[in-house]
Each structure stands twice: as C-alpha cells, then as structure tokens.
Amino acid sequence: MESINVKVLDEEEDDQSDPEIEDPVTPIVTDNNISQREVGSTDTPTVIDSSIEPAAKIQKNHPVDNIIGQVEEGRNTRKTARVDYRKMAGLFAEACLVSKIEPKDVKAALLDECWISAMQEELLQFKRNDVWELVPQPTDHNVIGTKCIFKNKSDEHANVIRNKARLVAQGYTQVEGVDFEETFAPVARLEAIRLLLALACLLKFKLYQMHVKTAFLNGFVQEEVYVEQPKGFIDSQYPEHVYKLKKAMYGLKQAPRAWYERLTIFLLKKGYVRGCVDNTLFIRKEVGKMMVTQIYVDDIVFGGVSDQLVKQFVQQMEGEFEMSMVGELKYFLGIQINQTKESIFITRSKYAKNLVKKFGLETASSKRTPLATHVKITKDEGGVSVDISKSRNWAGNFEDRKSTSGGCFFLGNNLVSWFSRKQNSISLSTAEAEYIAAGSACTQLLWMKQMLEEYGVNPGAMTLYCDNKSAICISKNPVEHSRTKHIDIRHHFIRDLVENKQVVLEYVATEKQLADIFTKGLDVSQFENLRLALGLCTFDK
C-alpha cells in the first residue's frame, strides 16, 4: 500500500534549525549617537525590522574561539520550551482573516470583509462549474428564491479557522411536476460500511476517504429551473434578469439525485460495476485485483488489494471533480476508525461524549450498568403521582405480551450488524417466539450473503445459532399440530432457506447465546461476558 513518510526531527536537528529562546528579544537600535534612555522618547517614529535577529554580545572574557556552538544563537542558561514563531505568525494571520461572528443575513455579512470574501469564493465555484447563465426573467415559469447560509468552520480545539458561505435555493418554493420530478438518491447503510471494514480486515487492505467539494454543483438538472440573483451580488446592468440553471445547486429537491447520477455515469465509464443490492457500492475487478468504492453523498470511502487501482482511482476523481483528499479512513458517520496492519478497531466514544455534552450531563454522577438483578424496589409514598394514560401514549401498551427478537451477525470474528425489536404478533410459546426471531434474522443473513457475492466472496451455507431445540425442529420439519398450525405463513420463510441449504440451524446453550444481551435483563457478570464475546473491549488511556 502507498504510505506517507513523515520525518521527525530529533533533538540535535531541532537544536540546529530552531534555537532555544529564553526571553523575548528587545530590538536594539544600532545608532551609537542615541543612548538607551533616548530610544522611545524621541518624537520621530522609529521603524524596527523584527525579521533581523539580534547579534550575540561578545565580551573580552569570552573570546570567539572559546564559544561552543553557533555564535548567532546567543547563550541559554536554562532549558526552555521551543517556540515556533513562524507557526505562531501563521495562526495570528489566520485569526486576523476570519470572523468569529456568524451573520444572520446578507445585509450583516456585507459589513464584514471576511464574509464578503467567503461569498465571493462561493460565487466563484458557480462560475468555475458553469452552473448557471443570466437570462431575462420568463413570464411562464416559477422563479425560485436564493439564500446565503453562513457558518464558521472550527478545528478540533474549537478555534474558528474558516468562514464558509453557502448559496442555496429555497427549494420549498419548487412546484412538483414543474421544477422537479424524482428526488430520491441512495446512500450507504451504516451496516454496509461495517461490512466493508470487516472485509478489509480479512483481506488485509487499507481504506481511504476523500471528499467532493461542492458536489451538488456538478449534477445536471433535467428540468427548466430559474433562480433569483443572490442578494448583494445583483448584476448592475441586468438587475431584473434571473439565472437559468444548467446544473443543480444546494437546496434544490433534485440536487442529491442529480449528483448521484453524475457520479454513477462517471464511474461506469471508468469500468466500475454498480452493486445490485447496494446501489452506492461500485467495484472494479481485474485479474487478481479488486477496487472497492462506497458512496455516501459527497464522501467517498475506497480501497483495494491493488495499489495501482487505488492510485488510478484518485487520479481519475481529481481529474473530473474538485476533490479534498482526507487520507486514511479515520472518522466516518460518527465512527472513529483505527486501522493497523493486523486489525481494525472502531469506536463511537466521540459520538457518546457529544451526546453527554448535548444534554448537559458532564457533571452527572456515574452509575454502573446494568443494574444488579433481584433488587427490591420500594414505593415512594411522597412522590408525584403518575398519569397512566400519558405514560401509555408515550411508551406504548406495557401489557401487549409481545416478545422481543434479537440477533447479531458476524463476518469471521467481526461483528457487522445487530438488532433488537419487538415482534409484530403475540407468541403462545417460547418455541414460537424463537421461531419467529430466527426467521427475522434470516432476512439480514440473506442481505449479507448477497453483499458478499457482489464483492466476489462465496459464503456458502450460513450458520444460524438458536438456543431453542423446538424452534429448530419446526424449521426443519413442516409439521402441523395444535401449537404451530396458527403461525402466519410469512414466518415459515426460514423453512425454504433450510430446505435449500442456504441456512444451517445449530443449537447453542442459553448461557452462550450472544443475542441474549439484546433481549434479556442480565446480571453484571453475564452481561460483561457476552459483551466481551461480541468483540467489545476497553482501551486504557
């Protein structure tokens, strides 16, 4: 795989290139006719060039021949932290060129040069992509309004680093059948991303990420759409004219679909095959080589066992669109990803911390979960009474007697997907409940099987573990008796899969059933054992 080498300076190299500075240097005026007391007191302003480094002071007791090191660096009496003044100057320059206040409208933005530059940069993207053309206002067409959205971009330390202006169309004024037809655009499922991560872990290839800048401005619109000139940037010669769109823009209802179609056409021309199950998956295969691309709107995850195909894909995308190469996949859809040579670790700690911060629970006291079993709960006689009707409307009927289905799915040892949901019907026995849950799990198994086949992997017969022997017998033997004859036909879906040898049911002891963590209230020890068996682990800081 292609790697990026980063050179880290050791202490000796750093000492030569960046001298230690103990105290801020006061510029010295070299005119001998002016004493130190006269400096700064004269009425004539003195211009000091801060780029000139002060000369080291040489005394007679310290000849030049006896000085060790660079004379120009001066003398350090103690170890001090190095200061990168060039980097600090860059930070100060950026701080002076950005505004920390987000304007509410164009009128307020036009009072700030930083936001004027941001709006001009946005309009330059429209010109560069040839999005529209100025035409006289038609009398028989709807003209859509425009609006500018202002947002500050911050770094990981919450420092404002960029002022971003986005010109959008007021899509709520569009007329269906006139200004737009189809609006649906597929996006990758989160479990599809986890499946790709698991496959990359098994096949030992790295995944990378890139971002398409102003992606929606690349999609072609099929309808005849007109938008108003943006406020504050109206053409002085033709103030009554409007823009006729050649391509889509943000805010249009058909913009996501137009971008998806544009990207799809481009990838198909380059030899990629679109997935039949997942339309956001594009695969290119050659002899002994494979390149995988997963699309999520304007974010693209890609990788493959061939470095040549990966480099070629990057060159093709950069040649067609304005791209931002993020690099190795580290953060995607709220998932933090750490790729090593032997494994891939994923976590959502950042997402969890953001939730805690969102609801103001940073200072809340922590409690161990799950709670201990067999705890006696006493009634609070002095508490506030509960409105039963409101509780039922909010949480549903607590006495519907419907069971909960749960399951987890692995590719190798990698947990890819899981679910926990209430069943639609009431089960009259545990065997019936387990049988319905097994059939529900088979739908996800078939999806995974079809996805793997698109990657070129033949999974063969898939194994489904169930902790109820009666449910296994019902799936293998189409018997009908008083306890099973009432089961709905759609739940017998699993019988066809077992008969066609697509799914193999095997018995697993209840204490080893991993899916119990999604359906049952377990004690702490059993909960932690199942959690560890799922592949979840804790990393020490």
From TrEMBL:
Keyword Amino-acid biosynthesis assigned: no
Keywords (A to Z) from UniProt: Membrane, Receptor, Transmembrane
Superkingdom classification of source: Eukaryota
UniProt-annotated stretches for the region Disordered: 1-27
InterPro entries per record: DNA/RNA_pol_sf, RVT_2
Pfam families: RVT_2 (PF07727)
Acidic residues composition bias: residue spans: 10-23
Reverse transcriptase Ty1/copia-type domain boundaries: 129-371
Name listed for the protein in its UniProt record: Transmembrane signal receptor
Source organism phylogeny: Eukaryota, Viridiplantae, Streptophyta, Embryophyta, Tracheophyta
